[in-house]
Amino acid sequence: MSNGYRRIARDGIWDNNIVFAQALALCPLLAVTGTASNGLGMGLASTAVMVASGLLISLFRGIITPQVRIPVFVLIIAVLVTLVDLSMNAWVHDLHKVLGLFIPLIVTNCAILGRAESFASRNRILPSIFDGLMMGLGFTLALVLLGAGREILGSGTLFANAALLLGSWAAFLELELIPDYKGFLLIILPPGGFLVLGFLLAGKRLLDRVVEQRRAEQANAEAAASSQS
Amino acid sequence: MIEEQPVAGPYTHARTSISRTMGLVLLALLPATLYSLYLFGWPAIFLFGTTVLAALVFEAGSLRLAGKRVRPFLLDGSALLTGWLLAMTLPPWAPWWIGLVGAFLAIVIGKQVFGGIGQNLFNPAMVARVALLISFPLEMTLFNAPVPLFSAQAPGFLDSLAITFGQSNQLDAVSSATTLGHLKTELGRGVTLDTASGGVESLWQLTLGEASGSLGETSALLLLLGGLFLIYKRIITWHIPLAMLGSLALLATIFHLIDPQSYVGPLTHLLSGAAILGAFFIATDLVTSPVSIRGQLLFGAGVGLLVYAIRTWAGYPEGVAFAVMLMNACTPLIDHYLKPRIYGRDRKGEPLNYADERGEA
Prior knowledge:
The complex is a heterodimer.
Chain A lengths: L2 H13 L10 H7 L3 H25 L8 H23 L1 H7 L10 H9 L6 H31 L1 E2 L3 H5 L8 E2 L8 H4 L1 H39 L1
Antiparallel strand pairs in A: 1-2
Helix pairs in contact in A: 1-7, 3-4, 3-7, 4-5, 4-6, 7-10
Chain B lengths: L17 H49 L3 H5 L3 H11 L7 H14 L14 H12 L1 H4 L16 H9 L13 H10 L4 H4 L6 H6 L11 H13 L6 H20 L7 H6 L3 H8 L10 H21 L6 H18 L17 H6 L1
Helix pairs in contact in B: 1-3, 1-4, 1-7, 1-11, 3-4, 3-5, 4-5, 5-16, 11-14, 12-14, 12-15, 15-16
């Protein structure tokens, strides 16, 4: 993998993560992440849309004039979301019943339009598809982490209803971590989404800082070693 | 290095410090707290201890994480007071984890996340109380009639341990609705006030505190004395409590006069629930209430209005916590519009125009 693709992957999943770094797409994020399964479903649907929109927009970037680009992007994304919505309704109907309200709202997910505007409309097809994939995976990671945190704290389970999403083989994912848990309603409600997201953001920054510190120490040690020799 | 010289001058020392303020507030709360603990017995004492201890532990932990010095901030008494006030708003026989989770919500989410003492937007104890009420409606509304310590019905030491720390829902207490809760339910069914009042405590019982309710909702008299002590010591001013209780009493009187059968009278409103505790100890929180006198009057009146509205027309029987938090949210706005006048300038910030200056010009 060339250096450019590695950069795209790092950006999408961690350094420039849609949620953790750009703080975009908070509306669907907070709305659906009552459970980890919902987060996973929403994340995968968004990823599919991002990959496809990256492909289409990069493909047509030569003929879309700057004046009409935003309506065209929105149109392309809306078509893709409609496709995803109908497909989910057809093939994962039970999950669609849970997420159904939010799937059409992927259209308004500012992150998708943002990637179309800032990446896909300026790059070749393959990097655009890859960027959509990585950004989508990063978004999925955030959704699943937030969903898992809220689900564990709020209802004491993990990946409840995963079988609806992935088929009956995924039943082993469904854990009941805390038996007889009475539920912590606040965490399931939207304010809880903000609270858990806040702690996740703080955790990410803490992790980044620790990694940076360790890297700086390593660099210092190497510099000291080379100056001695 | 320059030695710091003591500055000689005609300075008077005001003797105000955070720890002195907190200490006096705690002292003012002490009689009511002790009486409530006596009324509700060992389970209440365990819950109180758990909550206060947890608040201190969370405070110390947060300070360590934030890299601040632990001892001076921990010993200023603010975390102790927050935990104490929170414990006063809990049902006395609630299980231990209510106190623990509440302390976490109050100290970590309500206070330290905002940057510690003096930085919080909302009263930490009220943040915790509202969050607990929304999250655990069952545990937070299970009140029991007072059974004084060492009385015949009171649970023994070991039984009390089981009530607070054991598996919950095993308690065999005489559960009993609070005055406000009872009246709300009955009035909601269309029963007239005269009939509904049959089952509730008399005003005299409410004043003394022989009624069911949260720890700090019981003895209106002792809380009032504590509040007056704080005003006497100039820790708080009279503006917020008077404005809050005044607007609450005024509204209650007006509606009671219009329709005595469906609106509860002013005295019941003042003496039951957390009105007195809220007016003197919670709404007057120095951090989250407005600075100027006019702002404080507006703030207090707003709290009283919201308390009355929530108690009368909303889904919850008691609304002091919600009302205080809503007005906390308005505090920056109030402070913006009701600024104290700058010395030597008028309210718009223009220099004052004196007669002799005008003569010269």
